[in-house]
Amino acid sequence: MPHRPGHSSEPDSTGPAATDSSNRLKAQCIRPAGAWLRLSVDADGRWTLCRLAPPDTSAPCRDGDAHWIEAVIAEDRDALLQRLGGTGGERQPWQQDCRIRDSAGALRWIRLNAHPGANGDHWDLSITEITDLKTREQRLRLSETRYRAIVGLQSDLVCRFLPDNTITFANEAYCTFFGYSRAELIGRSFMTLVPQEEHALVDSMMSRCNADNPAMISEHWVVRADGERRWVQWVDQAIFDAGGQLIEIQSVGRDTTEQRRLERRERLRNRVLEQLVAGAPLRAVLEVIVEGFEQESSGRCSILELDRDSGRLYTAAAPSLPPEYNQAIDGLAIGPGIGSCGSAAATGERVVVEDIATHPYWRPFRALAQQAGVAACWSEPIRASDGHILGTFAIYHDHPQGPDREDLERIELATNLASIAIERTRASEALRISEERLSLVLRSTEDGWWDWDLSSDRVSYSARWWEMLGYDEGALETNRYLWQLLIHPEDQARVQEVFDQAFNGTTNAYSVEFRLLHRDGHYVPVLSRGFIQRDADEHPIRVAGANTDLTERKRLEQRLRELAETDDLTGLPNRRRFFAELQRELDRIRRHQTPAAVLMLDLDHFKRINDHHGHGGGDAVLRAFTEVLRAELRSTDCAGRLGGEEFAVLVPGNDLAAASHFAERLRRHVAALRVEYKATRITVRVSIGCTQIRHDDADPDGILARADEALYRAKRNGRDRVERA
Q1: Which pLDDT does position 64 carry in this prediction?
Q2: What is d(CA 170, CA 185) in angstroms, rounded to the nearest whole number?
């Protein structure tokens, strides 16, 4: 029933309590708030306002007429009057938000809920103040606008999606990276951007997202609109409602394809060097190089070794090419115009044949190439350190094409590794042959020989033997104890054991390595091979042998070990060696409870430097940064390059505060760095994460993960800063 002046009525159940008691309006406006409000119109169209007590109370009603429509501001009044003027059977309930001014002149929002009266001649209205609601909505819109503006400028890939994987937001970088417009992305499942074989992995990670585990870091393949696959690392942050229900996930991604590629190449390089140090056969080492290249390329590869005497190329490694093809080109003569490899070996220049079917170099071999299913062949000469040609590295493709920049980088790495492998193997083979020859003439040569006549207890040493140790012949007393006096203390027991076993056994020869003291104080590594002469009763009567100076060989082995543990661009320890140093420091902390800290460093916007200045500019920046880093290190510190633009520093004896101070000093020095490259000056910035090593840390991975979290925070908070973890 409509409410008439002077009559009471139950309050409308749609309206909550209105504004506080301080909200007072003047005449012809809404009267003091704090109670429920109800409006009605009488038969003459006169608007009245009655102040009613809230539901379920016995407070008395105090009626009073009020022409309240003038309280609504002019901009909202016309629309409201139009709503209120509706008549007839078509009238339906409606809701309208309006602004009024209170007694202090401040704007306030009210919401009117209208229902047609039973007789159709009036409206029953309930009023609720919604000023706070409107303020929150405005702040939310402003916050969302700011969020979209800030995220839209990020170079990282940012998106948000619902629990059912539906994308609700994507920034410009995300759209550009995947090659879709925002309209094409919003509303689709982000799983359509993930290769099918990665779905199980991604689903498994998403299923672990809950209130106890709201943040996750993952890395997997994605596929772009053009079909290209890229590695992306994602940092996912779950968003929950007040009841703990997952409502949305924000994901921030970073393209790690190049980093993965560099890490893969570093692993290949280390594996090759490790096999060389271990003495693996050349064919096995070269096949590792070929297989490593083929993992990054769609092509098939071969390495041919050049026999300089015959001027022919022989197959050294080609595991993916048909055996019939390898057999046909084995022993290929070199010369200009003889295929890709024959020409490259003869000219010493790269030969790129993009289409075998039309290139004149391949005219005699077209049928063979067709049978092997190859349509393009690029060949790079493999050079020794002195510049002469050792062989060729060839890449075959099943359709015509030429190399791009990444192909050329991979080829350069492969030929460099193949050069090291071939040279090292040839040097080892030459040394082996030399040592075999030496063993045949050892008794008659004067090159480092010695002789001990047991019957007379007389010992002789050749001039070369003395020369190896820096002495003039006969400078020291000559007897059988001399070599024992000169041998390194750490080698004495082992060498004596070998000598005794040979002397008292049935063998007539022995071989042992040890160190002899040089006149200037250093030790000379030697290979001593001895021969024992026995009488008819098998008793030793004479022992003779020769010492070979192993200094150069040991130097080469040490160099190979260093290459396997050192980053060739910066000269810093690589990831494997740094992890070993970190493990040793962790073991020391567990024993002695001494402080130590680790820093993770990442050059800011390094990809942009590479894009603008090329990899030559990027390499110049890395070398210059390394010089600044070395200048700040103490002799006890250890810095390593973990890959790409990422570095780590171990600072023994420092707590987190001291390490952070060191990091801030390093950051300032890097910020002042200007790298000159091709008439341009490149500015360098670095973000640093610091963490304390704890005695209960399980392994280096956990320590670096903690430092990496701080580094990510430094990146997220604006870069060029230091953060602790």
Answers
A1: 43
A2: 7
Does the pTM surpass 0.85? The reply is: no
DSSP structural state of residue 362: G
Q: Tell me the three state secondary structure of residue 129.
A: strand
Question: Which pLDDT score is estimated for 445?
Answer: 53
User: Hey, what's the torsion of the CAs at 324, 328, 330, 332, to 10 degrees?
Assistant: -160
Contacts of 553 (CB under 8 A, 6+ apart): 431
3-state secondary structure at position 42: coil
- Token couple for 673: 């760095």
CB 469 within 8 A of CB 461: no
Beta strands in 440-522, from DSSP E residues, in sequence order: 449-453, 458-461, 509-517
- Provide the residue type at 459 as one letter: V
Phi, psi of 429 (to 5 degrees): -65, -40
pLDDT, tens only, 86-124: 655 566 788 888 888 766 677 888 888 877 776 666 777
Query: What is the spatial distance between Cα 522 and Cα 555, in angstroms, rounded to a whole number?
Result: 14
699 Cβ contact partners less than 8 Å away, ≥ 6 residues apart:
583, 586
Three-state secondary-structure class, residue 664: helix
Instruction: Give me the active site residues, please.
Output: 645
> Do residues 484 and 509 touch, judged by C-beta distance below 8 A?
no
* Per-residue confidence band for 40, with pLDDT thresholds at 50, 70 and 90: very low
Token representation of residue 479: 């007897």
Block residue for tokens 């943040």: 215
The 8-class DSSP code of residue 365 comes to: G
Q: What would the pLDDT profile of 153-180 be if each residue is shown by its tens digit?
A: 567 888 889 988 899 888 888 888 899 9
Strands across the sheet containing 509-517: 458-461, 449-453, 540-549, 523-534, 509-517
**Contact, 25 vs 31, CB < 8 A?**
yes
Chain segment 357-411, per-residue pLDDT in tens: 999 999 999 999 999 999 999 999 999 888 889 999 999 999 999 988 878 888 8
Residue 199: which residues within 8 A CB-CB, separation 6 or more? 191
Structure tokens, 110: 């009210």
